[in-house]
Each structure stands twice: as structure tokens, then as C-alpha cells.
Design goal:
The chain is an alpha+beta fold. It has a single domain, classed as Ribosomal Protein S5, domain 2, CATH 3.30.230.10. The protein has nine helices and 14 strands. The two termini are 14 Å apart. Bound molecules: ligand DP6. The site of ligand DP6 has 17 residues, from helix 2 and helix 5.
Length: 321
């Protein structure tokens, strides 16, 4: 009862921030992302009657107990569904540096869900995998699919799942991550999602999301970066304003984050079509077309405060190996 799956992280153009139901990770708004080809996780799961407890290694090292408990809870959902009580050994490898602030949980829970389902002999549709992956990490619902992906918020476990908008080769975009800090985040996204309700700006952001979503859909369909770019910047900023104005406040930016935002504005004024988005951390994701990627990478590398650069294209969804 063993299987192995590979999945990519994703970068959201319209973000998921705030939960309606924390147990099932039912979000307050629909979100849209691109699955990444360079930031990926491979996970092997083996269920065995000989194990007393679930075991987890990440990049060859035994994982901390908090990570093991989170994986165990997720495996329980799959075990329950399959009617199999056995514990599992889970080995996971990332193709990107841990602690670079990349949302590794999306790739991790997409790969874990797919591998565990196959190992348990469950025959699940991609939609069912997306719904299950969502329970482990909200954004993992999107990583089941490749390319450009829409997560329907829905209102309950049955209606909240992702769906593909366009395959990876539909549009050759790049996500160039300028890593400025490698610290672990002080507040988890899970906690942040619960605090969103305390922000006086939450309603304003959700209203803006409703205006941006149809534009983002059209921008992807028409491969129009001048339409997409302002939408993704507006939503990243709105999400961070909600974070900053929550009680207690969540302030993920570093001084370098602001410096990069200003650099992107200057580059764009100078004729380079590049836009920024920022997740729950200080690192800045620069989104541009493949044809402009080398110029953007050269400018980012020239900044002395950027520690490393990770370049991803649009990648495949979950793949069984
Ligand atoms: C800011 O709940 O998916 O990246 O707590 O690590 O599971 P974990 O993350 P998740 O939150 C992701 C939040 C975000 C925005 C997004 O990807 O939509």
C-alpha cells in the first residue's frame, strides 16, 4: 500500500485570506492562482499494519511533532474514507529551499492527498482530491491542478473546490521570487485566516475581490498582462492591509519588501512590464512574461538586499510517479 505523487506550489493572483469555516477551510472569497513548475514537492506514502504511529520525514530529516500531527490529522480523513486503520510512513522532498517563505504547504498537502488516496486504493476524481487537499491546507485545493486555477469558495465541504481555468502552456508567465528574508513566520496562515474578521477593511477587500475576479479571468483567457498585473497588485496590497489592520495586527513586510515594490514601479515606468504580489511573508513575487524574464532576473539580482532568486514557470498539477 504504497504510492508517490508530485505537486507544485502555487502563486495566487487573487488571494485566499479569511475563513468562513476553519474546520473545513471554507474561504470567504474565490481565489485564482498559477501552479509553479520549479517549487515542487514529491511525497511517498506507505501504509503498514506494522507501524504504531505515523512517521514523517522532510528532505530526509525526521519532521517536528507539529508537522507530524498535521499530517496525521490529514491522513485520518483518508483512512476514515477508505476504512483502513493502518498508520503510514510519509517521506517528502522539496525542490525549493525550505524557509524561503514559499507556501510549501500547498504542494505538500496536494502531493500527500494524492499519494495517500492511491496507496489506500481510493479512486477519487480530481475534484474530490481538491476538496480533500483543502482540508490540509486551503491553497492546496488549487495545487491539484496545473496551469491557471480557480478555487470556488463555495459554502460548505461539498461546494468548495478548485477547477482548472487554462493549462500550463496556455500562457508563458514567470514567477520570480525575490527572497529578502528566510525567517519562519511568527504567525501561521491558519491563525491569520481566523483574524481577518477583526479587520475593519475586510468588507472593502471582499468587495474589491468581486470586481477583480472577472477581470482576472478575462486577463488569463486573453493572455493580457496589462489587465492582470494591476489586479494582482491591488489584491496583494488589500490582503496585506487586512492583515496589518487585524487585532492583533499581522505585519509581514520587511523594509526590503517596500523597496522592491518601489523598484517594480520604477522598472515599469521605464518600460519593463512586471508586476508584484506578496504572500504571508516579506518576499516579493515578480510576475512577468517569459520574454521579459531575463531582464527582470538581472535587475533583481543586482539589488544587494535580495538574498536569492527562485524562478518558476507555470507547471503541471499533481502527478503520480
Ligand atoms: C497568503 O491556508 O493555504 O498564500 O496555512 O500554510 O496552509 P497554510 O496556507 P493557506 O493560506 C495561503 C494564504 C496566502 C494566499 C493564497 O495563497 O491564496
Amino acid at each position: 500500500m504504497r504510492a508517490r505523487a508530485n505537486a507544485g506550489a502555487n502563486i495566487a493572483f487573487i488571494k485566499y485570506w479569511g475563513v468562513r469555516d476553519p474546520e473545513f477551510n471554507i474561504p470567504l472569497n474565490d481565489s485564482v492562482s498559477m501552479t509553479l513548475d520549479a517549487a515542487r514537492t514529491t511525497t511517498e506514502v506507505e501504509f503498514s499494519p506494522r507501524l504504531d504511529a505515523d512517521e514523517l520525514t522532510i528532505n530526509g530529516q525526521p519532521a517536528f511533532s507539529a508537522a507530524r500531527a498535521r499530517v496525521s490529522r490529514h491522513l485520518d480523513l483518508l483512512r476514515e474514507r477508505a476504512g483502513v486503520p493502518w498508520r503510514a510512513r510519509v517521506d517528502s522532498w522539496n525542490t525549493f529551499p525550505m524557509g524561503a517563505g514559499l507556501a510549501s504547504s500547498a504542494a505538500a498537502f496536494a502531493a500527500l492527498t494524492a499519494a495517500a488516496a492511491v496507496a489506500l486504493g481510493l479512486r477519487l476524481s480530481e475534484r474530490e482530491l481538491s476538496r480533500l487537499a483543502r482540508r490540509g491546507s486551503g491553497s492546496a485545493a488549487r495545487s491539484i491542478y496545473g496551469g491557471y486555477v480557480w478555487w470556488h469558495a463555495g459554502h460548505d465541504d461539498a461546494s468548495s473546490f478548485a477547477e482548472p481555468l487554462a493549462p500550463p502552456d496556455h500562457w508563458d508567465l514567470r514567477d520570480i521570487v525575490a527572497v529578502v528574508a528566510e525567517e519562519e513566520k511568527a504567525v501561521s496562515s491558519a491563525e491569520g485566516h481566523r483574524l481577518a474578521h477583526t479587520s475593519p477593511f475586510l468588507e472593502a477587500r471582499l468587495a474589491q475581490v468581486e470586481r477583480l475576479l472577472p477581470r482576472v479571468r478575462r486577463a488569463i483567457q486573453q493572455r493580457d498582462l496589462t489587465l492582470l498585473g494591476p489586479c494582482l497588485e491591488a489584491d496583494a496590497l488589500a490582503m496585506h492591509f487586512v492583515m496589518m489592520s487585524s487585532t492583533p495586527p499581522l505585519f509581514y513586510w520587511a523594509p526590503e519588501t517596500v523597496a522592491l515594490i518601489k523598484a517594480v514601479h520604477a522598472w515599469r515606468d521605464g518600460g519593463l512590464p512586471v508586476y508584484f504580489t506578496i504572500d504571508a511573508g516579506p518576499n516579493v513575487h515578480l510576475i512577468c512574461e517569459a520574454a521579459d524574464a531575463e531582464r527582470v532576473i538581472a535587475r533583481v539580482r543586482a539589488l544587494d538586499y535580495v538574498r536569492s532568486v527562485i524562478v518558476s514557470g507555470s507547471g503541471e498539477g499533481v502527478v503520480l510517479e
